[in-house]
Every structure is written in C-alpha cells, then in structure tokens.
Q: What sequence folds into this?
C-alpha cells in the first residue's frame, strides 16, 4: 500500500540510539491517516511513531479495517524497502512493473522487494469487508540496490501450543522459519489466541519487539492491548507472556536493532535528502520505475518536497 498523504511527514530513523537497552512496556498511540481518493480509506499508522520509529528493520505499519470499503491504490513507486501485505479479511489484487499479478487472501503473504526501484498498484475487487496490515521493512545498504522481485506464499509455517498458533510471516520465531526472503534478522508473526489462553511466546534477547492487536483484547506483559496502539517491548526478553479472555489475533514484530540511519519520505526509503530528491524526480519524469501493466489508473503524482533539508530526529533513551 502506498502512503497517499498529500503532505507526507519526513522521518529520519534507525541507529542504535533509538533502541531500548532492555525490556520496556511502552504503549504507542497511532495516528489516523485517510488515504486519498473519492472513497478514502482510513488506516491507523503506528510506525513510524513519534517515540519509536523502527522495530528492528520494520519501519512502517498501517492497520486498516475491519470495514466495508474498496481499496484503490493507483501505480506508485517504492525504493529501499520490502512491502509486506497481510490480510485478516477480504482480497487485494497486486500488480507491479515486473509483470506480476497476484490476488492475496487471508493467511497468505505478498512480499515485494523494491531494490533500487519498483512501481505497483493494489485494488480490492468490488466493495467488500477489508481488514489487514501493510508493513515495510527497510533494506540495509548492502542489499538496497538488489534486483526488485516479488514473492507470494500461499501457505506459511507455524509455531503452536496449548491455546495459541503463531503463523510466521517473516524471519524466525521459536525455531520456525518463514520461506520469505529477508535481508536482516527479523520476526514477523500473527499470533492467534484461544479464549482463556495463557501462553509464553519465545523471544530472542538480542531482538527488539513490539506487538499490535488486530482483533480482540489481550494482556501482553501485563499490559492490556486492544486494536489501535502498538506496544513496544524493547530488548532483553526471552519470552513474552500473553493472555486472552476471548479469541484474539495479535501481530508480533521484532528484529535485530537496525544499525543504519534511514530517511523515509512518501513511498521512498533512502539515506539522505539528496537521494530522496532524486527518487522523486525520477518518478515524476518516468525514469527507472517502469509501468504497471493491466491497470488503467493514472500513476500517482508525488507530493511536493518539504522546503527545508532533512534533519535527524532520533530518540535518545
């Protein structure tokens, strides 16, 4: 999914100074963002957050629905990241400039690695209930100019025990490894809890983690979690205690702290202001990003850049 804001915020993030040095429980309120178009769709954006801008290499998280709506995202560009599409309800059709066309359904993973440059579109067929999450993973410098490619994984491995099942979207959890290609050590999993469940999910002390409620209500490390805010957990944990009175779905994100500083603006991830300026110019002039076959929608124009150079805004703990 694109960032369709008309005046997107610029964020400089990453680096070890933004990482909690041990376990914390910080409830981060997201902000409502209305995606553009005649039938605008509202999402709750919890990454990047004013206080925590990344969790491992995870740098962007939108949670949308459940609601009856139509997703219509015209062709738009990306650089320097992987887009991770995860559905709880509904269907979304992905098309990209490489010629890939793939319908994603709940429980399946669409993963697009942008490399140097890619463009794509997303549409939901008809007017139906949609519920899901769109995430971005920042690519480290060693891989951010890799050849762009797309993956679809209709089935994914899971970790399970009494009262829970954890579907591993990206990376590794408790020794269970996703088939999706990653470029830095990651965890991305949907954890489904039965009513009355009290479980411990294995974690890596060298990873930082966060958890988001997709549906239902849970207690995570003793903190009540409902759909909306993101609970940042910091580092230094070997287990996460979860409990739920009724059926609940959670999104667990984690990863090795991302050592590089990145600049995010609109749909681009770069390393400095000049690079973002170049990406925008190449998109607007039709260079480098190709065209998306199979769609009649006009490409999404880039917003105007801010009038001041980017400055670091990292949080020192």
A:
């Amino acid at each position: 999914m694109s960032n369709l804001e008309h005046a997107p915020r610029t964020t400089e993030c990453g680096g070890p100074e933004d990482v909690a040095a041990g376990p914390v429980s910080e409830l981060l309120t997201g902000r409502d963002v209305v995606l553009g178009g005649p039938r605008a769709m509202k999402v709750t954006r919890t990454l990047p957050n004013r206080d925590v801008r990344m969790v491992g290499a995870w740098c962007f998280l939108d949670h949308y629905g459940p609601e009856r709506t139509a997703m219509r995202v015209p062709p738009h560009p990306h650089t320097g990241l992987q887009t991770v599409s995860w559905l709880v309800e509904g269907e979304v059709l992905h098309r990209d400039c490489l010629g890939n066309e793939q319908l994603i359904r709940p429980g399946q993973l669409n993963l697009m690695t942008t490399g140097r440059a890619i463009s794509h579109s997303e549409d939901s067929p008809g007017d139906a209930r949609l519920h899901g999450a769109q995430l971005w993973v920042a690519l480290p410098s060693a891989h951010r100019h890799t050849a762009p490619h797309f993956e679809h994984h209709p089935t994914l491995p899971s970790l399970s025990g009494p009262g829970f099942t954890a579907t591993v979207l990206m990376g590794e959890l408790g020794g269970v490894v996703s088939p999706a290609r990653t470029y830095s050590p990651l965890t991305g999993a949907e954890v489904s809890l039965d009513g009355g469940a009290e479980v411990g999910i294995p974690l890596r002390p060298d990873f930082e983690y966060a958890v988001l409620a997709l549906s239902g209500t849970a207690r995570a490390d003793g903190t009540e979690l409902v759909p909306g805010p993101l609970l940042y957990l910091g580092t230094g944990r070997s287990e996460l205690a979860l409990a739920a009175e009724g059926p609940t779905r959670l999104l667990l994100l984690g990863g090795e702290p991302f050592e590089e500083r990145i600049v995010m603006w609109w749909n681009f991830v770069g390393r400095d202001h000049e690079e973002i300026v170049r990406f925008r110019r190449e998109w607007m002039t039709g260079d480098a990003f190709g065209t998306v076959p199979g769609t009649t929608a006009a490409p999404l124009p880039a917003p105007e850049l801010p009038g001041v150079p980017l400055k670091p805004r990292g949080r020192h703990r």
Summary: The longest strand covers residues 58-69.
